[in-house]
Design goal:
This protein is an alpha/beta fold. The chain has 17 helices and 28 strands. It folds into 5 domains: 5-126, Rossmann fold, CATH 3.40.50.11220; 144-209, no CATH class; 216-319, Nucleotidyltransferase, domain 5 (2-Layer Sandwich); 328-444, Tetrapyrrole methylase, N-terminal domain (Cobalt-precorrin-4 Transmethylase, domain 1), CATH 3.40.1010; 447-573, Tetrapyrrole methylase, C-terminal domain (Methyltransferase, Cobalt-precorrin-4 Transmethylase, Domain 2). Helix 3 links the parallel strand 4 (62-65) and strand 5 (88-91).
């Protein structure tokens, strides 16, 4: 089940929400801003409708501590199919009632019972079959799939009319129910891993238990289409239902194997990986049987290279407690600091991560989004060590977000991650790093944010130069400044000064004045998008290092950059057309 969302509209309901969260530890508590204290909630929201519909569209269970009508009216435009709706429950603000509203096919009644137990009340369940038989045949528990839901309506109607039923196969959730079992019953509940079952026999519901573990070695083809075709043929020859596959399993050294991931995606199941020691043979049989447990039996094996094997467990397999997932590492750019400038991709990556790695100041900026993530703070100057830490965490199967402000590819952590990765590859170190899935999620840079505040100063050609000489010699900085000045670029200066570097900005200003007019426009943008934002416009000759710090972006215009007054203040822009004379 995806992480549930608990919506609280007032501070007086916080205690009820916390009692619910005690039994749903992965739930995320959403509080209405200005009516709940930010310290008591995980996420603050301003617009209830937008926040609620977003969570619902993400297929996450919704628990609203509010009137039922509010939830119904807000979600009504999104209701299209009962087969796709996540659980939605209304909880009385004093915790006196639990009312399941939607998601009967996705466990809403079980969730209602769980919450009601925590609140020491009885849930208001109205589903007739659920009440009478203490089970939901249309909504089997995790680990089981109903193969023929189109036959369920008539089947349940016959049960409610007095028919009896017999069980074929093993399903503790059915034997523990109050269904009217009888040896000579007309109705049948069949639990099987077999694909070709008598589905056309009237009065039969068929459930496929996720009891099969599919093991692979590196000998499996890496071509995704061929790998999927191979498994389809394997299922067909063994007469197995794909819905009974609980997961696909490999060895950690091949956690990035494209064929394995293509099969897992096609089947809609997790891919998990084991670290095999020297005593365990690196075979598909060993992997499948390790996943299925000591009581399992081998039921299918591909001869020859033995790249695959299928083992059968007596009960559904809890895949998420086996081995580890493929490591994920995403380098995110949070933008200059304002939550409004953070992309949905970055927010999703942060919320989906198990670990955050970054400079403390940048982690503090996204702290309001943190729910269960573990923070790994470090000093701003430890970029390569930070990158190696993130890669090591991801190699353990964790989902890691490396946090940068602005855009992660501009003087930030993306380059550090790839540098650490290349060094390891070149020296044949850390082979598990090869298996990590890596991506970069861009963010709004300080350059873009500062430019937007004053108009469009980077409307034409521009460049970005860091004045820090920690990672490159100052002679290189000077050479690039001269070239940019002579080429008449708009120039953005990052890292203009620091506690230990106080002279470089003055040197850069004097160097630029050799070719630029003293009246060249300069924008000093400090803390853009954060508390204490300040935008100051100077001429190049007036630029003083004393009013600049590491949180300031210095943006120097070209010879064509202009400033003009309007009813709303002054605007600065660089026109998109240059004449031939200006180009030299």
């Amino acid at each position: 089940m995806n992480d549930p969302a608990i919506f609280v509209l007032g501070q007086h309901s916080i205690l009820v929400a916390q009692n619910i969260k005690a039994v749903l530890p992965h739930a995320i508590l959403y509080g209405l801003r200005d009516r709940t204290q930010s310290a008591d909630v995980d996420v603050s929201f301003e617009n209830f409708g937008d926040a609620l519909r977003t969570v619902f569209a993400e297929n996450r269970p919704v628990i609203g501590i509010c009137a039922s009508g509010i939830l119904i009216r807000t979600l009504a435009p999104l209701l299209t199919s009962k087969w796709q709706e996540p659980p939605v429950l209304a909880i009385a603000e004093d915790g006196s009632a639990v009312v399941p509203l939607l998601g009967g096919l996705h466990g809403v009644n079980d969730l209602a019972r769980q919450i009601a137990t925590a609140l020491n009340i009885a849930p208001a369940i109205t589903t007739t079959g659920d009440i009478r038989f203490r089970t939901a045949l249309l909504s089997p528990p995790v680990g089981y799939t109903l193969a023929n839901p189109e036959d369920a309506k008539t089947f349940i109607s016959d049960l409610l009319a007095g028919a009896t039923v017999k069980l074929e196969g093993n399903a503790p959730w059915l034997t523990a129910s109050q269904l009217p079992f009888a040896a000579e019953a007309r109705l049948t509940l069949k639990v099987t891993e077999q694909a070709n079952t008598p589905t056309l026999v009237p009065g039969t519901l068929i459930y496929h238990p996720q009891t099969l573990a599919l093991g692979f070695t590196q000998a499996l083809t890496q071509d995704p289409a061929a790998a999927i075709a191979f498994v389809q043929q394997l299922f067909s020859s063994a007469n197995l239902a794909p819905a009974s596959i609980a997961g696909v399993f490999g060895q950690t050294h091949y956690a990035g194997h494209p064929g394995i991931h293509a099969i897992a995606q096609a089947l809609g199941v997790p891919a998990r990986f084991f670290k095999l020691d020297s005593k365990t043979p690196e075979t598909a049989t060993a992997l499948a049987q390790r996943a299925a447990g000591t009581a399992s039996q081998l039921i299918a094996i591909e001869s020859g290279a033995e790249c695959s094997a299928i083992a059968l467990a007596p009960l559904p397999i809890d895949v998420h407690n086996l081995g580890q997932a493929q490591g994920q590492l995403v380098v995110v750019g949070t933008g200059p600091g304002s939550a409004d400038w953070m992309s949905p991709e970055v927010k999703h990556s942060l919320q989906a991560a198990t670990d955050w790695v970054g400079y403390s100041t940048y982690l503090n900026l996204v702290e309001p989004l943190r729910t269960h993530q573990q923070r790994h703070d470090s000093d701003n100057r430890e970029e390569l060590d930070r990158a190696r830490l993130a890669l090591n965490l991801a190699a353990e199967g964790r989902s890691v977000a490396v946090v940068s402000s602005g855009d992660p590819g501009i003087f930030a952590m993306a380059a550090a991650v790839f540098e650490a990765l290349e060094d390891a590859f070149a020296q044949n170190l850390n082979p598990d790093w090869h298996q990590i899935k890596i991506q970069v999620a861009p963010g709004i840079s300080a350059l873009q944010a500062a430019a937007a505040r004053v108009g469009a100063p980077i409307g034409h050609d521009f460049c970005v130069i860091s004045l820090s000489d920690i990672l490159k010699p100052w002679s290189t900085v000077e050479r690039r400044l001269k070239a940019a000045a002579e080429a008449d670029f708009v120039i953005a200066l990052y890292n203009p000064v620091s506690k230990h570097r106080t002279q470089q900005l003055a040197i850069a200003r004097d160097l630029l004045l050799q070719t630029r007019s003293p009246e060249t426009l300069v924008i000093l943008a400090r803390n853009v998008g954060r508390a204490g934002e300040e935008i100051v416009v100077r001429s190049l000759s007036q630029l003083s290092p004393e009013e600049v710090d590491m949180r300031t972006l210095v943006l120097i215009g070209s010879s064509k950059t202009r400033r003009f007054a309007s009813l709303y203040g002054h605007w600065i822009y660089t026109p998109r057309h240059y004449d031939e004379e200006a180009l030299g």
